[in-house]
Amino acid sequence: xxxxxxxxxVRVVPHVEREEFVNVxxxxxxxxxxxxxxxLALDEQRLKTLAPNVDxxxxxxxxxxxxxxxxxxxxAGPIGELSPRERWRWLVAPRSTTIQTxxxxxxxxxxxxxxxxxxLDRVVRPLR
Length: 128
Known about the structure:
By secondary structure, the chain is of the alpha+beta class. The chain has four helices and five strands; from the N terminus they run E-E-E-H-H-H-E-E-H. A hairpin with a 4-residue loop joins strand 2 and strand 3.
């Protein structure tokens, strides 16, 4: 069954003042299924090319926190106790931090995982 959902590209912005970023994942929220999901594909080499002095371990910790918010629950702190819709709005809210998202986009699919794979291949993983 096809469902409407929203998705956003997750970005690492190592130096916020420069406004340069590397796409590292895709998040989606499907209200019909009350599903909030995140898939990451961090390419450390691309990130290091953009920002040679970046602390990759710190970036991974920030991305793990993003994943925890998607999963929800008390391990994600007070935000983790919110509904999936509220957590989604928090994740895609504009911010000036190292981890950011694109604007949210609406889509329609009967295969959310397949859609996520296609987006990862198109805008996150290196071109072949």
